[in-house]
Amino acid sequence: MQPLWQQLSKTPHYKGAQTQTVYSELRFFFARSELSDSPAIVRRAFIPAAGLGTRLYPVTRAVPKELLPIGSVPLIHRAISECTRGGIHEIVLVISPAKQAVADYAREVCQDLGCDLVCVEQSQPKGVGDAILLAEPHLAGEPFVFYMPDEVCFCPTSPIAALADAYDRFRHPVLALTWLTPEVAPFFQGTGRLETEKLSDRHYRITALLDKVRDRFPVAESGSLKGVGIGVVDAGFVELLHQYRLQVKDDREFDDLPAWQHLVKTGQLFGALTTGLIIDAGNPSGFAAANYWWMTNKTSELLDLYRATFLLDAAMP
Fold first, then answer.
1. C or N: which end of the chain has fewer Cβ atoms within 10 Å?
2. Cα–Cα dist 293/295, whole Å
């Protein structure tokens, strides 16, 4: 059965010259993203969605963080759609038993997008490192996209494709970088601080991952780079997690930070500057900022949503 956006583009109401226009306008509304020319070496994406969402309490006591919307599109929907835009064909979603609604929604999105979905259960929220090791059997020992669903991309070109290209070039893990100006700094908290060595216009070697700060993200007058929770890692990264896992007691949270720090110390972590802006919507100020940014900068998406609703009504018998 064809996806709904294809069916609507062929309805009697919109034949002939209008078909291509309808096809274009409905594309994002039904999360149908065109696949890019990113290298086939990166084919899978890992999305952790088993956390408690404590930074957004109390709303996440009632609604899973991943189902909170930016505009009208939930965070998990945006994450999966962004992955497919970058050429990803399989999503490995690590989910809590208490978040069945997130898994059900993700299945519908993946079906519409034509990509495969594997759900892996994490019975206790023991951290992202633990989640990656649980997902390891489904990652096939290949490089994969690491995508925190808090990250909302307002990028004219695919950050996933840029990361895959950078990994293809350096053959080491790569983190996405976004550029912050002083005007947008008040919307960002002090995570993702780093030091870099510039290698080319859009590529960097990451030389330090700095501690979080409670205040807003510090930005220079000329602007600053910020690391975000999207990247490409590989089997070597997973092996590092296995090594550090031995140092953690079974009942404690196992974070992935030690593996990232090891890569920095050994000069094996790189950064790729993305276009546009990426916002961490996993905290109150970031969530508000992402919705504000969507309202002020994504009017075309809002217009598509309005038009798609009109076309749906028109297509009804």
1. C
2. 5
- Report yes or no: 273 and 225 within 8 Å, Cβ to Cβ: yes
Rounded to two decimals, what is the model's pTM?
Answer: 0.80
C-beta atoms surrounding 252 within 10 Å: 10
**Residue whose C-alpha is closest to residue 237's, from 146, 311, 171, 173:** 173
Average pLDDT for the chain: 81
Among 112, 174, 117, CA closest to 143:
174
Question: Measuring CA to CA, which residue among 233, 314, 273, 219 is closest to residue 13?
Answer: 314
